[in-house]
Amino acid sequence: MQWTNKGSALLLAGALLALAGPLAATTASGAPGVSGARTVPRTAPAAPAAPADPAEGPDPIDFAVVVDQSASLADKDLARETEAAALLVQGEISERSRAAVIGFGSSEKRGQSPVREVCQLTVADAAGREELSHCVQELGRRDTARMGPGTDFPAAIRQAVTRLTGAAAGPGTGTGKPGTPKVVFLLTDGKLDVADSPEYGTDRESRQSNGAKRLVEELARARAAGVQIWPLGFGSELDRAGLTAMAEGGYRGACSEIPGSAPRMRVVDTSAEIDKALQETFAAARCARIAHGTAGKPPADLTVTIPPIATDGSLTVAKHDPKVRVTYYDPAGRKVPVRGEFDGSSFEVSGENGPVEALRVKNPLPGPWRVHIEAPPGHGDREVAVRAIWQGRLRSAVVLDPASPRAGEQVKVEVQMQTRRGVVITDPRQLADLSVAADLSGEGFEPVTFRLADDGKAPDAKAGDVRFTGTLTVPAGATGALELVTRMEAPGITSDRRPLHAVVAEGAPLVTAALTVDSDTVHPGATVRGTLDVTNNDSAPHTLRLALADQTPGAELGVAPATVTAPPNGSTRIPFTVTVGKNTPYGALGGQVTVVDTADGDRTLRGALLNVRVVEPPTWWERWWKAVTGGAVVVLLVGTFVGIRLSFRRRRRDLTGVTLELCQDGRSLDSLTVRRGQSPGGAFAFAVDEPYGAPATLRRVPGGGSSAHVLRRTGAGELLLRPRGGAQVPVRPGEPAGLGDHELVVRGGRPAPAGGRSTPRFRPPRRTGGGAGGGGAGDAGAGSGRLTGTDADGSPGASADSDHLF
């Protein structure tokens, strides 16, 4: 049945009255002397939980999934609700959270109850998630004998609030941490319908009206107990105004100041969208993020990406059929265990034997995760979807400058962040929409809040370096201890909120210091330089201690010297170094260098954040590639030059195409042309044959030998003739040269270079004996090893020694 107009009006009016209840007022004016600051609220409906140390993982929440089981739901819609509820209880990222699952309808006759608690409030650790995976399936079995077909919202909210606030929680529910957020996720397809529930009155109209009033009362109770209500509706018969009133009637606190983290109503068109919408709602409620992966039917490989900033997450697999088997692979392609530790991450799977499976990962490796799904025959007809719910829990390193400020003095605050895995956040894209603020409290003034920015505007040094900076003036009334807490808020991101303690300085400090550390990229084993400037106004020297704080886990850092002395009545500059150990992990280093005055009760004078990135040492090739490449280029050029020279010389020496003509008494007897390959090394060996009764002929002598004449060409292109057993003499192309009883004319040869040595013109040598052309005993060349003659001018012929010419 539907609400009557009167009932709806009563509900909305009650919700508005509830919202106008005793909420804490925020003072608009800031504390004296604080520019842009505001007074922190002193009261609140429910105190927020003190954030846990990052090592403990994400902050827990206590939540109840309340599911409509009224008769208006079709079986397929109820199945969708059941799977959506399973996704929430399996995908919770904190093992310290507690979850309950409650079905509801109405009570219309004896033996019926409007609520059915299928899962008691259970700690969502390994054993608890397995229990939740089993008990949540009871939602899909509707018991009409024990639950009526109506929609009793007041009873459902009352049951959930009672369980979450600890009253009659039952055994095995664990102990909730004070201040832990409490959230109700309510799934429904309809409207308030208690017209047939006798407990609300004697007739249908009064029952509906009384039910609306009771709902307002239960919402006020939830608000007083700090319980948020997140309604999710589906279908076409919804009362959107009623769902909005429920969201606004519960506790209006939020997990952060990020828009969207306060309770709100959401509606989807069909039950097919419930699982996706409910996970998105859940992520918004607990300041987490959701990454939607791919979907497909088995066998298939699905993927979902976890960003670098994530420190805790759960991969949820809506497989529908328990027979579907899932295997998980990290971004490095390695199969990860379903339970235990691996490469700095811890894993824990649950729901393997249910329709929804989840792998909880602590310190996940960032990047695309692969989820492989398989199914036996007959069990792979439904589409499987994978998603990841994650949260980034950041550590903060805070520098207060000066470290001990005076009342009324302006101070600068600088914050750097890193993940639990030790990854320093350096990419501003990972921190989109991040808001950073700091709260300063202490003796003698009201707490103040101020913002920090990374916009490059003073006092921030550089925009986008993920170092957030801000200033404030310490209130004039500050008298003693100070406590500074930074808050980082963004979708899916929370911070550790560790306090930084300081003390208000009285009067002018005797010792002041300035500290700088070089920004550098180094290899393991290297050092980074820094400078300490100290002014000591005291009459005695002060011993200062240099130390490291907030180091990246696993980093092997050292500072030297560890102590320095500031001489009295003067200023001094002291260099120091930060040593990066050989086993320090690669990446940006987190932490800071601090200087402490040991003579002043270990008062911190100054701190400076490290801005150092450790990179892998270069390989031999990376170190020497320029020299090797340059040397190779030089060798190549020299080799090319030498090769060209040698090729040119070979071409100059080559006798291919040269014709040798044998003459006697001015007439040609025979000719012989040098063919390709017949003049190795620029030399051509030949002989003169004188057959009996026939003219002499020329014959090539392969391989040469002592019985052959040799014609050579030098690298400079000069022709030289060495008669058999004689000395070499120059030869000009086209001019005869003596060869025993004959003359040899060389044609087709290259002329000698201009300006080179002059080549004598020879006349035929005198014959002293021996056979013609054979170089017999009477041949001067054969007898003496030298060939003699006369020059054109009649002077004695030149002689050429073979060894001298070559």
Keywords:
elongated, 806 residues, disordered N terminus, 43 strands, alpha+beta, 6-stranded mixed β-sheet, 9-stranded mixed β-sheet, 10 helices
Characterise the protein shown here.
The chain is α+β, with helices and mostly antiparallel strands and 806 residues long. It is 17% helix and 34% strand. It is built from 10 helices and 43 strands. The strands form 9 sheets. Strands 8, 10, 12, 13, 14, 16, 17, 20 and 22 form a 9-stranded mixed β-sheet that branches. Strands 4-3-2-5-6-7 form a 6-stranded mixed β-sheet, sandwiched between helices. Strands 1-19-18-21-23 form a 5-stranded antiparallel β-sheet, with no helix packed on it. Helix 1 runs parallel beside helix 5. The longest helix is centred in the last third of the chain and has 34 residues. The chain is elongated and about 155 Å long. The termini are far apart.
